[in-house]
Design goal:
about 210 residues; alpha+beta; OB fold (Dihydrolipoamide Acetyltransferase, E2P); DNA polymerase, domain 1; Helicase, Ruva Protein, domain 3; 3 domains; 9 helices; about 50% helix; about 20% strand
């Protein structure tokens, strides 16, 4: 419904009983946006311009906006909400504890102990998140044909399954195959290590600049 809101940052509030929140004014309307302490700390000063990527949460008793300073975190937030047992509060906690890329890396590697470091996320929920998210991010996309023939890397040693896995995650986050391949090409030339986690990190960094 609302992809992003660009306007003046009227106020920002770090985590409290009400949670971390932005108030963004656009066209004489003030939008109350739930967010994370991570985003609060990265935001500019009050009265500065801000662009917040949003997600509308519609519950029986309320409608709320959640927002992030980059599109990738917003898209990962939306995917987290599809995991049974994960609501807005838990998704925000996870994206406060981890950057979007670190969260995806923990899912890909199956590191449930790392995810369970987030407050309120126990080992059972962490394993459930990994099980369901890995299926949504990688396995389902791998069932669809993905052309990696145009992707090359600097040392020619990067395995096809690493490229395919990275591309599957990017496509799951809403990028087109063409956008994913372009980002992976750049990532292959800049990544310090030739792992799916490192390539994904560099690809997301590139896409965030676009």
């Amino acid at each position: 419904m609302i992809d992003y809101i660009k306007g003046k940052l009227v106020a920002k509030q770090a985590q409290s009983v009400k949670g971390a929140q932005f108030i963004v004014e656009n066209n004489n309307m003030g939008y109350l946006i739930n967010t994370t302490n991570r985003n609060i700390s990265l935001a500019g000063e009050e009265n500065s311009e801000i662009k917040v990527y949003t997600s509308l949460i519609h519950r029986e008793d309320a409608m709320m906006l959640c927002g992030f300073l980059n599109k990738e975190d917003r898209d990962i937030f939306n995917i987290l909400l599809t995991v049974s047992g994960v609501g807005m509060k838990v998704a925000l906690i996870l994206l406060d504890e981890f950057s979007g890329c670190d969260l995806i890396s923990a899912v890909i590697t199956g590191d449930y102990k790392e995810l369970s470091k987030a407050k309120g996320v126990g080992p059972k929920l962490a394993q459930k998140i990994i099980l369901e998210l890995k299926d949504k991010l990688i396995n389902r996309q791998k069932d669809s044909p993905i052309d990696i023939s145009e992707i090359t890397n600097k040392s020619k040693t990067l395995a096809d399954d690493v490229l395919s896995e990275t591309q599957a995650v990017l496509v799951s986050l809403g990028y087109s195959v063409q956008e994913a391949q372009k980002a992976i090409k750049v990532a292959c030339s800049t990544a310090a290590k030739e792992t799916s986690e490192e390539i994904l990190k560099e690809a997301l960094h590139y896409l965030a600049q676009e």
